[in-house]
Amino acid sequence: MIVKAREILIKVFGYRSFYPMQEEIISEILNKKDCLIIMPTGGGKSLCYQIPALIFDGLTVVVSPLISLMKDQVDNLNELGIQACHLSSSVALDEYNQSKGEILSGKIKLLYSAPETLMKPHFLSFLKQVKPVFFAIDEAHCISHWGHDFRPEYRQLSRLKTFFPKAHIAALTATATKPVREDIKKSLNLTEPIDFIASFDRPNIFLDIKEKNKPFDQTLEFLSKFNNQSGIIYCFSRKQVDELYEKLYKLNYSIKPYHAGLSNDERKINQELFIKDDIQIIVATIAFGMGINKPNVRFILHYDLPKNIESYYQEIGRAGRDGMPAHCLLLYSYGDTRKIQYFIDEKEDLRQKSIALKHLKDIIKFAESKLCRRYLIIRYFGEDYRKVKCGHCDICVKSEDNIEKIDITDQTKLILETVKSTYSRFGATHITNILRGSNDKKIAQYKHANLVVYGKGKEYSKEYWQNIIKQLINQGYLFKDIDDFGIIKPGVKSDDVLRHNEKVFGLPLSEKESIKNQIADKKSMVYDEELFEELRKKRKELAYRQNVAPYIIFPDATLISMAFSYPKTYEELSKITGVGKVKLEKYGDIFLLLIKQYLLRNQQKNVKK
Question: Can you tell me the mean pLDDT for 240-259?
Fold first, then answer.
């Protein structure tokens, strides 16, 4: 069955390979084992139950806490050609009854429901007719008293095993300490559950904490780095949200507020505007976010201190879900702790008060520490993370300012020789393929396997060479010509190396990362930004027609791959991550034509020059 799972991954979802742990999790779920799955946001939790659901002969029920989250997942699955629905109080009666009929007939493979709907007697009676084979409990930390987001309605799920003894259960969450994990398993009555605990590391997120000093000015400075990009600003109170929103709105920021004091309609409209890229920024209390699966959030700003590390981790987890760089800034002052302390003191339940106080002490210790942010947060969740300098937080970057650069002269010469021997006609990907001795079709087409430099850098990864290319562009040894399809040419300083034997120095590189080049700076990525914007406009147009969020069509990461590789055929487009069979058939002609027209326009532009 795992072979079938791999086929679905490629053909339906458009991914070439599984994320870490996904294959093992899917295999155990297919073997009908109960599982507890702890996987960071953006780590691919949804596929762990969606793929088995498509293989199982029967209904899979996904329990989710918010209607917006359910609707988002159902829209995404329907766009992929998968029969899924959600049943809740927000669904019109005709649609509700139609969906029930499709579930009874076996047409629907995935049913999404909130716990309070699921556990109603009439709904349980309906499900007993269908006999679900599998339950996926999303945001499972909500069931635990020890969790930061405890929801009493989740406790009712403890009866699922009683009502459906033959069905197996997977509990999934991104945030759970050891006590929470044990509570989840006990509360759901899981039978000999298999634990899967993925790394809590999100290497694409830059973690940053600054002392709060003139916070509005600090906010403006931070936002200036993210022009026309999506982000969330979290505030402690509704009053703070409203004040900050008014100030930023008057400065013409594309922004809306979100908190429990607004009407349901206002909250829904503002959330939709954000999801559909009609506004860029949401300023909100913690009431906002759990139902958001927007992949292209490029920044999170905590205007105030979060109540605990779990909340902080979950909130920053809403950034960079597409795997691209994101920046998370927390403005901290000890004065913020008094506001949290006040609400803790108001609690009557001594147990809850004790838990909240411990959480507060932990977040203060985290904010005030001078140790690597990533090291502290990952160790907090019980992971044996041993890297004491991650290179992707404010603490490590400060210490890296004094790092001695290494000699990359030999690598620079090799790249420049490759660029010159191919007559400066190719982009970074092709240069990298030559150095690594790739068997790519383009290599054969241009007979580049015959070059002296072919395979001279095969001991290093693709990421390694592309990181060096980025550094050399920044230093002026290479030049990326955006007007000429993003090809790489020798820069103004290239002769200094090739003729005058000048030494070149760069930041230390490893197989997995280069220290500062991975910090949240979209401009450092080597792709055609003009084409990317045209692809985004086309995506927005298609999404508007279908009344779905733009990322439902394609996420930013997929469009960036198109703007990087300029696919010209169905085969080339199908190799891009996120382009499955249904989306290829649905949108292939549209995006290939756009890319073709873009290339022709640029060719004519260059001829005129």
Answer: 95
Q: What DSSP line would sit under 173-216, residue for residue?
A: ES---HHHHHHHHHHTT-SSPEEEE-----TTEEEEEEE-SSHH
User: Tokens representing 429?
Assistant: 């990907």
Which whole-number Å values give the CA distances from 484 to 405, 427, 475, 605, in the listed order? 32, 10, 20, 9
Please list the residues that pair with 172 across neighbouring strands: 37
Query: How confident is the prediction for the chain on average, in pLDDT?
Result: 87
pLDDT at 92 over 90: no
Strand pairing partners for 302? 234, 330
Main-chain dihedrals φ then ψ at residue 35, nearest 5 degrees: -135, 145
Tell me which residue of 253, 210, 270, 196 sits closest to 21, measured CA to CA. Answer: 196
CATH top-level class of 529-608: mainly alpha
Residue 249's pLDDT is 95
| 204 Cβ contact list (under 8 Å, min separation 6) | 320, 323, 324, 325, 326, 518, 520
Specify the length of the chain in residues.
609
The listed CATH number (3.40.50.720, 3.40.50.300, 3.40.630.10, 3.90.180.10) that belongs to domain 2-197? 3.40.50.300
Q: In angstroms, rounded to a whole number, what is the distance separating the alpha carbons of residues 238 and 225? A: 26
- The span from the CA of 484 to the CA of 466, in Å, is 19
Q: 2-197 and 529-608: same fold?
A: no
- pLDDT greater at residue 466 or residue 113: 113
Domains of the chain, by residue range, sit at 2-197, 205-392, 406-514, 529-608
Sequence-ordered list of residues with C-beta below 8 angstroms from that of 207, at least 6 positions apart, any chain: 316, 328, 373, 374, 377, 392, 393, 394
Place of tokens 């090291």: 375
- Complete DSSP assignment for 79-127: HTT--EEEESTTS-HHHHHHHHHHHHTT--SEEEE-HHHHTSHHHHHHH
For residue 490, pLDDT beyond 50? yes
CB-CB neighbours of 370 under 10 Å:
7
CA 388 vs CA 40, 520, 571, 590, 593: distances in Å: 20, 20, 44, 48, 49
HSE-CB of 480 using CA atoms within 13 angstroms: 22
| CATH 1.10.3720.10 matches 406-514 | no
Q: How far apart are CA 456 and CA 437, in angstroms?
A: 7
317-356 pLDDT, tens per residue?
889 988 888 999 999 987 888 888 888 888 877 888 888 8
- Which range (218-222, 266-270, 537-541) has the least confidence? 266-270
Residues 274, 282 contacting (CB under 8 angstroms): yes
Q: What is the mean pLDDT of residues 116-123?
A: 90
Can you say whether the dihedral through the CA atoms of 128, 85, 53, 197 is positive or negative?
negative
How many angstroms separate the CA atoms of 368 and 391, rounded? 18
Residue whose C-alpha is closest to residue 290's, from 263, 310, 305:
310
Spatial neighbors of 163 by CB under 8 A, at least 6 apart, are 124, 127, 128
Q: Which tokens hold the place of 18?
A: 């599984």
CATH of 205-392, one of 3.40.50.300, 2.40.440.10, 1.10.600.10, 3.60.21.10: 3.40.50.300
pLDDT band per the 50, 70, 90 thresholds, residue 451: very high
